[in-house]
Amino acid sequence: MENFVAYNPTKLVFGKGVVAQLGKEAQPYGKKALVVIGKGSVKKNGILEAVYQQLTEADISYTLYEGIKSNPIYEDADAAVAQAKAFQADMVVAIGGGSVIDSAKAIAAGYYVNHSVWDFYLRKAPAPTKALPIFSVLTLAATGTEMNMFTVLQSDAEKAKHGYGSPLLYPKVSFLDPEYTYSVPQNYTAYGVADLIAHSLEQFFDTSNSPLSDASAAEIIRLAMQYGREVHKNPHSYEARANIMWLATAALNGSLSAGKLGGDFGVHGIEHCLSVLFDIAHGAGLSIVYPAWMRHFYSQIEGKLTFLAQRTLHTNATANDFIVELEKFFTEINTPIRLSEAGIDREKHALILDNLKQNNPKGRFFKLIEADYNSILHLMA
Amino acid sequence: MENFVAYNPTKLVFGKGVVAQLGKEAQPYGKKALVVIGKGSVKKNGILEAVYQQLTEADISYTLYEGIKSNPIYEDADAAVAQAKAFQADMVVAIGGGSVIDSAKAIAAGYYVNHSVWDFYLRKAPAPTKALPIFSVLTLAATGTEMNMFTVLQSDAEKAKHGYGSPLLYPKVSFLDPEYTYSVPQNYTAYGVADLIAHSLEQFFDTSNSPLSDASAAEIIRLAMQYGREVHKNPHSYEARANIMWLATAALNGSLSAGKLGGDFGVHGIEHCLSVLFDIAHGAGLSIVYPAWMRHFYSQIEGKLTFLAQRTLHTNATANDFIVELEKFFTEINTPIRLSEAGIDREKHALILDNLKQNNPKGRFFKLIEADYNSILHLMA
To answer: What's the pLDDT tens digit per position in B19-70?
Structure first.
């Protein structure tokens, strides 16, 4: 086992009706909230209203920033920072999925500086020394951002997507009501499942010896496949929604990083090039890249794949069985496994390769160079 | 899944040489530390000296409270509170196993009140509203107290052992160096393994439906048996010591309580009666009570035991196979499975039964009444 630090101060409040605790939890942190949402679905389904009521009962006034995109751009975060400063906000309340919460993290750090939030992501600005307290109400089970210190934003102009992390960016309290995800459409539910499986795999393919982490990653993947199928058949199953929601948090809240060196994340790097170029959902990109990446590195990861196969399928399953089953599963729940299925045809390959060379995603354990990009691109076609 | 809160603000610093970070971590919390230790082994092996050096470098002066017993008594905590008050301590630094850290938690809360700490455990005093910051340097892998909010103390006069919990009692930072456990004798190493397996089982026998929790409990138990055997053979195996140390933390740091209602803990209640009467190690008591408890409730838990058997042994294993294998494992690593093996003969049964009736341990899911005590006592003989 490698030396590690286990630290996660976020309070996660999980279950039916938990938003009723938001006012009480936010009250100690101030009097004014910037509320951040996406394209407005939370206005229609009553979730925004429920949060407003909580804030009002806690004597917290609020201003709304609306319109975070699903591949969130730094310009929105910068505009929201300006609004938060004008309002003299004491806190940020994010209602949405990973895009909205990741933007809220940027806003929280951007509040105390006079440069674009993008400079954090480009490592052009010094690390933040303070940030507004962040509260999140999750409406999409996928990225795990509700219980970690990471955020990913992109620049459309630069065609680049970058991650950033700071211990200041753990949400203070996150509220996860599985019933809030009943209305997530089938495809976005599937992308979320692909995302959580990918997060487990990224840490599993950190080859540091950490037996509990590897076993836990396999269990998360096994249950994600089981409840991913269940929720595909029955989107209003509370148990299926609740399990998927908790698995997505558990896949990236630090429990899998114990005894490891931070995961591989080469697949994430490749995927970021796809979603920044074609505006596809992150999870949809991941379900395309991972099977190709596994086939490309097959000879180096056969032992680890066999472990996964035996723990998620059956005791005699082979490494290749796992890849085949993963593709079958992704196809069943309707998330793409080939670029062509996402409407990205062969004439775009040169564009993808250029972007890969420009952004140069590396992978921490399975190093990526141009020859790897070519091979993986071929396998994704 | 039941509604739950996942919250654990303790920072766990794990690995070789991590005590070198203690000074830096403690410095922001004040200038004066009460250092708490047990019977003095940390004086001989250099750990106390290493901590003193860290405190000195961080410009923190200290006073030492020495002599916490292995089944810790509240009188020691009260005496240490008086010493801390006289010294005007800003923090408590515990160096030891569960007994020392549990005592440090009592001291931290007791510092701000004018009654015995025991009144917290008896629920005679209101909950603490503040507590000194707690730092821990763990020297025995077992109880998980280094990363949770619980503490257990006892009264020898009352022949009673009680637990207490408060969010104020999470250690700020805990330092876990597996090399510090190399010198733990074989029997105490085994008791620690029994303790961590028992913690996993207590939560596993919370019958609320929480699939990731159940799967994780099974993985912790499987690995505890694997590395428990390994460390028994090779006490200086870093990987074995590191795995046991992390498994003990993971078994009771909240990750298994997600989606559950707090665990059963009937076995812990019964064990407390044994260790308070006969001053045996808590883990040694648990390895005696659990097999008997499983046989007593066999018909109600056969399905759950079969799940455990299949995930920890092999796919065709039966419920009874698990009990037999657990007893075989405990015997192999030299922790007792019968009262007689702990030197408690049949003439003591009446005394045990009286103490059980007096303290009346219940179990949250598998309710215990006098008839159960009798049957379990018979099975433990």
So the answer is: 999 999 999 999 999 999 999 999 999 999 999 999 999 999 999 999 999 9
Taking CA atoms, what residue in B is nearest to A175? B5
Q: Other CB atoms closer than 10 Å to residue A305's CB: what's the count?
A: 23
The three-state secondary structure class of B162 is: strand
Q: Is residue B3 part of a domain?
A: no
∠ CA(B141), CA(B143), CA(B147), 5° rounding?
90
Q: Based on the fold, state whether residues A285 and A203 are members of the same structural domain.
A: yes
- ipTM of this predicted complex? 0.96
- Mark whether A256 and A164 lie in a shared domain: no
In angstroms, the CA B140 to CA B138 distance is 6
Which residues in chain A are contacts of B226 at CB distance < 8 A? 211
Q: Give every residue of chain A whose pLDDT is below 70, as ranges.
A: none
Instruction: Report yes or no: B103 and B77 within 8 Å, Cβ to Cβ.
Output: yes
Query: Is the Cβ–Cβ distance between A171 and A135 less than 8 Å?
Result: yes
Domain of A101?
11-180
Is the residue at B73 inside a domain? yes
Specify the CATH number for the domain of residue A193: 1.20.1090.10
Q: Are B200 and B257 in contact (CB under 8 A)?
A: no
Domain C-terminal end among A131, A164, A180: A180
Judged by DSSP in three states, A275 sits in helix
pLDDT, residue B68, reads: 98
Top residue of B179, B212, B227, B307 to mutate, by most chain A CBs within 10 Å, is B212
Q: How far apart are CA A141 and CA A282, in angstroms?
A: 13
Backbone angles phi, psi at A188, to 5 degrees: -70, -30
Alpha-carbon gap, residue A369 to B145, rounded angstroms: 46
- Interface contact flag, A211 B220, Cβ < 8 Å: no
Which H or E run includes A358? helix A349-359
3-state secondary structure of B63: strand
Q: Does residue B18 belong to any structural domain of this protein?
A: yes
Residue identified by tokens 């008594």 is B73
Residue B143 shares a structural domain with residue B265 = no
Angle subtended by helix axes B186-204 and B238-250, to nearest 10: 40
Residue A3, domain member (yes or no): no
Q: What are phi and psi of A53, to 5 degrees?
A: -65, -40
Rg of chain A taking only CA atoms, in angstroms: 20
Cβ within 8 Å, pair A246-B223? no
Please tell me if residue B223 touches chain A, with a CB cutoff of 8 Å. Answer: yes
Shortest CA gap B9–chain A (Å): 4
Binary contact (B259, A239; C-beta < 8 A): no
- How many domains are there within chain B? 2
A172 and A36 within one domain: yes
Cα separation, B207 vs B304, whole angstroms: 9
Q: Among B156, B180, B204, which residue terminates a domain?
A: B180
Q: Residue A318 burial by CB count (10 A; 0-12/13-18/19+): exposed, middle or buried? A: middle
Do residue B219 and residue A219 have CB atoms under 8 angstroms apart?
yes
Q: Are residues B287 and B335 in the same domain?
A: yes
B293 and B209 in one domain?
Answer: yes
- Helix, strand, coil shares, percent, chain A, to 5: 55, 15, 30
Q: Give the model confidence (pLDDT) of A228-251 as tens digits.
A: 999 999 999 999 999 999 999 999
Are A217 and A345 within one domain? yes
Same domain assignment for residues B230 and B372: yes
Decide: pTM greater than 0.95: yes
CATH number, domain at A65?
3.40.50.1970
CB count, 10 Å around CB of B182? 15
